[in-house]
Design a protein that fits this description.
This protein is α+β, with helices and mostly antiparallel strands and 538 residues long. Among the domains are: 182 residues, no CATH class; 178 residues, no CATH class. It contains 19 helices and 21 strands. The strands form three sheets. A 13-stranded antiparallel β-sheet has the order 7-10-11-21-20-19-12-13-14-18-17-16-15, sandwiched between helices. The protein has a six-stranded antiparallel β-sheet with strand order 1-2-6-5-4-3. A hairpin with a 2-residue loop joins strand 15 and strand 16.
Length: 538
């Protein structure tokens, strides 16, 4: 409780003005098929009760099919097609929530269109409920001590109940003993929320199975999936702050799946164009040539030996379309992608996108080839070239509305894009007066946060909750939602299409966010062990 009172994120969760959100989560879990169900709608009081189920600990997981089980199924004498393995499981600490959990389960069953067949079975010495449905498949549910356990496979239920009751064989290894989990130990093992996905060996993942007429194993070999060991992360608390860490761990050597991420840089080029007044900023770097090389390896692994030349044909077609070899086109870009929001109402019209480039002439040549007749105009102002691109059809199309345009400014090292020209010009003004107007990077707070992360970064993210006019943002979202049916009916023959806003959006007090939250900072980087992501919510 001391942690709960001190932490700003948990204070937000407990704030009465935020109550519609956890209630909506509970409604989503318990009334996922509400429109098709004859069960009465949840009352606000019931929603509040069921939302409190989230306060107890629970585990979701997946156990792969064992070789022993696979052999037993394949050796069974049956003409019927064996059911696909479903290793998902759920374990819930029901201490203090026993009656409420029973009520929630009954609520879920009342909403089912089909009445399942229920029977009692004994699994690992525990009485369990077997639930069979006409649509196929079955599931199991048991309550043992303080735990409630659910799974779709009897073998999974037996494994879990044996472990919970201390009846598992002493030699039976646990996830915590696996090499992948040990490697992720600095990240996993603590926190409010923890997740871990072990990437299995190819021999566990696939044998000689086929998909779409080709073997799966060569594709996975070409991707070098074996270089990826795990995906993991956790959420922890540090007083009022919330700390989120995640990582994709493995062997990040060249020629592996990690090639899709570029090498980091000390500062994104776009950061210099972001003013100190910005609401949010996000940047990321990817390795476009590395992605292309990975795709080529996959394609070559799929094609028979006599059709390896197909990749050359595809590259030739791409060169015809782009006006340059595909490899040259990819090298036009630095791999930096960024965005900035400068509207207190979070209006997309003020959102700006950045794309780093190496060579401006080649960039313009590529833009002319890609957009063709959609390129409405092109003009130069100093070292900046302005492009006006139609998103509603090309210039040769008859009867196509030409008022939907996107505006782009191409500088020697950057593409700047926004839906409004004045927004683009504001960014260019920051570029020309960077010495007089403070930038986001010049703020003491930003510099202090940046110093806490490694020198070279793949990504950088910032969001200031205090600068947002949340009431104006809510009004804007409502307005945009009402426009959606009009736009949809103009685009297609369905004038009766309606857009329904979530109930909680109109019930929650939008100011509750800035009341508890100030800023969010995150960064990502790459090293020999993989990709790392670190975020602080203050």
């Amino acid at each position: 409780m001391d942690v709960r009172k001190a932490n700003s994120l948990l204070a937000l969760w407990d704030d009465p003005d935020f109550a519609p959100v956890p209630s909506a989560l509970a409604a989503g879990m318990l009334d996922s098929s509400e429109q098709k169900s004859s069960a009465p709608k949840l009352t606000p009081q019931e929603l509040g009760e069921f939302a409190s189920l989230l306060e107890n600990s629970f585990t979701l997981g997946y156990i792969g099919e064992s070789a022993k089980h696979r052999t037993a199924v394949s050796g069974a004498s049956s003409d019927a097609k064996p059911r696909a393995w479903d290793g998902m499981f759920f374990v819930y600490n029901r201490a203090g929530k026993e009656e409420l959990l029973t009520k929630a389960i009954l609520r879920l069953r009342r909403g089912e269109k089909e009445i399942p067949r229920l029977s009692q079975v004994s699994i690992a010495g525990v009485q369990a409920l077997k639930i069979e449905r006409k649509t196929g498949g079955s599931s199991y549910w048991a309550e043992s001590g303080k735990y409630a356990v659910g799974a779709s496979e009897a073998a999974v239920m037996e494994e879990l109940l044996s472990r919970l009751n201390g009846k598992s064989a002493p030699a039976a290894p646990s996830l915590a003993q696996s090499a992948a989990y040990q490697e992720a130990q600095p990240i996993v093992g603590s926190g409010l929320l923890e997740f871990f996905l072990r990437i299995p060996d190819l021999k566990e993942l696939v044998e000689d199975s086929k998909a779409g007429g080709f073997k799966v194993r060569p594709v996975l070999d070409a991707v070098r999936l074996d270089a990826v060991h795990s995906l993991s992360g956790h959420v922890t608390f540090d007083g009022a702050k919330t700390h989120v860490e995640a990582a994709i761990l493995g062997d990040a050597a060249p020629g592996t799946l990690f090639d899709i991420w570029a090498e980091g840089k000390s500062s994104p080029a776009s950061l210099a164009l972001v003013p100190a007044t910005a609401i949010s900023y996000n940047s990321a770097r990817i390795n476009l040539p590395g992605i292309y090389a990975t795709v080529k390896r996959v394609v070559r692994s799929v094609l028979p030996q006599g059709q390896q030349g197909t990749t050359d044909i595809l590259e030739s077609a791409a060169q015809t379309r782009l006006g340059m070899p595909l490899s040259d086109a990819l090298n036009v870009f630095t791999g930096e992608f960024a965005s900035m929001e400068n509207s207190p109402a979070l209006d997309n019209a003020k959102q700006v996108f950045f794309l780093g480039i190496n060579k401006k002439p080649e960039t313009l040549k590529l833009a002319r080839s890609l957009f063709g007749d959609q390129l409405a105009s092109e003009r130069n102002e100093g070292d900046v070239t302005f492009l006006k691109i139609s998103t509603g059809g090309n210039q040769g199309s008859a009867g196509v509305a030409q008022w939907r345009f996107y505006h782009v400014a191409v500088t020697p090292d950057m593409i700047i894009g926004a839906s409004r020209l004045d927004t683009v010009r504001e960014v260019l003004a920051n570029r020309s007066s960077v010495s007089t107007n403070p930038s986001l990077a010049s703020l003491t707070q930003f510099q202090a946060k940046r110093a806490s992360f490694p020198e070279n970064l793949l990504g950088l993210s910032y969001f200031d909750f205090q600068k947002v006019d949340w009431q104006a943002a809510l009004d804007h979202w409502v307005s945009e939602a009402k426009k959606a049916p009009v736009a949809k009916s103009a685009a297609g023959p369905n004038p009766t299409t309606t857009s329904k806003l979530p109930d909680w959006l109109s019930q929650v007090n939008p100011q509750v966010l800035s009341r508890h939250l100030h800023t969010s900072w995150s960064a990502s980087w790459k090293d020999a062990k993989g990709i790392h992501w670190d975020q602080w919510i203050e």
